[in-house]
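Hey,

The postdoc asked me to send both predictions to you directly instead of through the lab channel. I've kept everything plain text so nothing gets mangled by the mail client. Protein one:
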Amino acid sequence: MWLISLAFAVEGMWLPEDLPSQAEAMREQGFIGEAQDWADLQQGPLSAVVSLGGCSASFVSAEGLIATNHHCVTGYLQQASLAEENLVDTGFLANTRKEERSVGPGGRVLILQHSKDVTLAMTRRLPEDPLARAEELERREKDMLQRCERDGLRCRVVGDYEGLRYRQLAWIELRDLRLVMAPPSSVGGYGDQVDNWHWPRHSGDFAFLRAYAGPDGKPAAYAPENQPWKPRSYLPVATAAPGEGAFVAVLGYPGRTSRWKTSVELDFAVGTEMPQRVTELDHIERTLVRRYTENPALKLILSPWRSGVANRLNKLRGILEAIKRPGLLEVRRVMEALVRSKMMEKPSSNVALANIDRLQAEAEERWGGDFVVEMVETGSRLFSLANQLDEWAIQRTKVDRDRSLGFQERDESRFLSGLETFSRRVAPDTDRELLARYLGRMMALPEGQGIVELRSWVVAQGGLEAALEKLYAAPILMESQQRQRIHTLNPQQLSAEKDSFLQVAVALRGWRERSRREEKIRAGDAHRWRPQRAAVMRQLDLGLAYPDANGTLRVTFGRIQGYRPRDGVAYGAHTTLGGLVAKAGPPPFDAPPLLVEKAQQNPTLPVNFLSDLDITGGNSGSATVDTEGRLVGLAFDGTWDSIASDWIFDAQINRTIHVDVGYIRWYLAEVAGAQALLAELGP
């Protein structure tokens, strides 16, 4: 019999250092270890957890083997595909170390070494003027990064609780990452967008990578003589996930949540921002699918982009539907009323509240024009790259500490790796179609809105169509050697280039500088007032004892359990191979014949399972561990009913979907024939 809703979910994406405060709550969920041990970055299980930059992962062997999700490696599969190959569709298996393929120069593995509180150093005696405040915060951050980034470390300064608290984090950055195994997309993405964000699921969303270091054991770029990285610890791999009701935890790097935002911000997001984003993402997805359906040669280039767009699109649609659930918005509004009432008790916090309201009103007034500009900037990758190259030329004329964040010497290797692989991510005709849409939208804005300099350039070419013809006649940014050459130019040399994209970027120098200044003013203004609201929220103890997710290491814990999303509907905690076979048919349920054949022989084997854990984007690939710290699965999705949890956590129905380690082992043995990989994972 299914055990449905054993208990309410445990809310919280906990910082490692705050985990000991949750020791009792962990014990109530079935944890039998010491919470303090799980807070230690220098020992397992946390020392085995890594970031891939946008996805999470974990070491699972002493030889640098890494487990993550299939959808986290689609870009790597794209880069590693040779002529006439599409490894995204076919999958990949290296039976020996020599067969492992580099994921390209953009591959990174980040291993957290320490987290240090730097609140006082970041916040004491800051100027009140918004621009001066933002610039001083940036100066302090750059100084900290310069002192921190020694001996190969990669560092970051992050603000928690709306800037009320700051941490400095340092990672070892490994730059040689290689593919070991990934199933075909018909396994790793089984069900595709039909099943995305839905339960029941039967997805084999797993993959394996290996991190390498130089012969001296230190981080190094790819080289044939490099050796597997020796991690401080790795997660033992269980034979199967535990049963319903058992304790599990997810260890990973959640991206962004908005639980500390105001109810006014939430209302505007669901009433205006999200619907407009849904419209544009839907258009982009349909454009990409149409383009590679008409020309299958484009599929390898466009399908990873389409997957990311579709996932975000489905999430936004789900939020807009879930947020309508009776009482959900009211919870946030009641909380907001308590916060506002408390802030009004003191003149200083009342002033802060008025300024927070002012900033939101200004943001709402700007939204229409700002969104069109955002789509122009992001809709065309050629337009975006041209502006980046020109900005690099300008920033390199300054001493390093005076450069803008993102354009310092510490950032150049990453930018160069992106330059090297750029052409494999761009189809010029598709790029043109999207830029035409958004450039046309910008030209239709009222006079003075949008990018004034860009509007003038388009008019000077004779209008939109003439401008597009000139831009896409022969864009030299599609040529690798030209990209590398242009990156070496100074501003005067780049101004002399004849390529139209580069000419536009030069024409937009004033706009970029103006935009950067305006953004700093808004950021400095917000930094002066929002921490005061956060301080009041912490005083009121509204259940948010942890900060919003911001791409840093977190731990969330709870149990394996199903749930009842609505009257008459009950979901169990596991799916099986029998259910996978029952779904098998035309795409996106075109499971490989061998998988179906083998699955029919073992129909009760679990494939995916549900837990009540608290995750969000960025947690993809996160290790799911049991109370002994053994890997029992990989988190890869949320459910439609809990999709609004980025804003409002609903303890009754919040659920996370994991791929069961038992299914991973079964697939490797029975379908992939990956005996060497199985042996490395251990018995």
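Protein two:
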Amino acid sequence: MKTDNLNEKIILIQELVNSGINVTPSIMDFLQNLEDPLKKIKFIIKNISFLPDFNSHLTLDVLQKITDEELQNELQKVFLKKIDSKILQDKEESVESAKLTDSPKVINPAKSKPKIITNSTDITQLENQLENQEDSLILKKSQMKTPLFPIKTNSKVRTFEGSKSTLKFKPIAKEYDSNFKILKDPTGKLYTNGDYEDFYNLTLDKFKRLRNLMRKKPEVLSANNINNILRLTNKVEVSVIGLVNEIRETKNQNCFLTIEDLTGSVNVIVRKDSENQENIQLTNKIINDQMVYIEGTYNPSERGRSGIIYCNYISKIDIPKNYEPNKALDPLSIVLISDTHIGSKEFEEKLWNRFINFLNGKIGNQHQRERAGRIKYIVINGDLVDGIGVYPTQKSDLIISDIYDQFKEAAKIISGIPDHIKIFYSSGNHEPVRNAIPRPSVPKKYSIDLLNQEVICVGNPSMIQTHNVNTLVFHGDSMLDLNMLIPGLENNKPVETMKELLVCRHLAPIYGKKTQIAPLDRDWLVIDKIPDVFHTGHIHINGMGSYSNILLANSGCFQSQTDFMNSLGIKPTPGILSIIDLDTLKGTQLDLKSNI
């Protein structure tokens, strides 16, 4: 290629990529051969912005929709040229074949006459034939250092238009290599004797980690140790950081707290009056073992009584309001699922098969197939199998009662996921690991068939980075405790519970309820690193939202209601996919139950 032509091509490519448009080499060659190609490309860029179904990939079908006579005439020439070339090739092959077999074949000129393209159906049919001969080259943002045009999505649940599709499926995710890191995984690092020292070390580590997070807030820099405050003999304004040791309502309906640090404990009164409503609202959501920051007036002790801080300001650690999440450079997506419960009689096999067909581009409308083509990763957040002996009446709910057979079946159904999609599997409370959190990954003796399919098995909680986006994966065991203890939180509103976990910066803020927490030297449940995506499961109810620019998703389930779930008042929402675009951090919920 001459230097002038090369420079011209670079300029044309840069113009397209700066507008967020991807092209294949064949489309690029076509555009470059147009008269005044730069002017024509600018015209195309302007016009495709009005096409509602344009998704950043410039194809022959997209060009055909642009109402420009010159452009359409050039497209006709390209199609006719390719047809003539194809016919000539077929003719040469026929002649060569005749020579080899000594059986000459007569080419009928009438049958070789090219078909004139007169409508969009002809163009689409021919395009599908020609696409088989094209190399799919996507101009990556990481190569061109320019932004890609994002697909706009929202978190509303969308029905799945699932009629069987005969369109050609070319997933863009297949063109990208996997790019991931496991940033946090407790597997192989969980050691405990279960004695008093282990419990003490866990509480001590929790306090230090949460205090360090709290001290990142500018207003807490003046906080003093509790022991120093208790030595005061006059009324004075003070501030303190501590864990809540007790919380109750007084006879006057004020809120009474006891908080403690490494030096001692002090009592706090939060008055319920008209000037203190914001503090009262926050204390309504406080539970034991949470880290809080208190400002107020300290009244020293009298006649042997303990001193009291009369609170005028209270806060939790929370997420900075100006947090800017990481985003991917490439137009890829991740699917978040959990609670498939393979082995259960209530496993939704039809919905799962529909999921597999969706990933393989066999069902769905054009937009849904494009979304499927962007999927590069799947996270299975616990309870892949139903397990055995998890609850008293479980045996009657099982169709596969052997744990090894459950995992073999799991490997079988997962094998339908396309090879270009990387799968991560984190353990839940139904897996054959300890019930106390944090949990290690499922042992190799159970997961060997999954490992042979290159599934990445991790513990729970874990932090997984995919194309620069950090996803905090937590099965969600503690969510039921919070929903029972904090007014306004409900099982059917998982996003609100997830927000409270982020505010506390801890995945199981209260100790000693139904959630079993293992006594370790390190508290793995502290949210030290702020995630870009927070993924939970466990309660079998799908939900999606955001908090301080963090995308939140509870991934529902693939299991219909069991008697045990009914006894807990849980009405599951199976078969709703949570799909996250890594380049925009926009979430979409896709309901697979439509048109089954």
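Summary for protein two, as requested: Residues 3-149 form one domain.

Thanks,
C.
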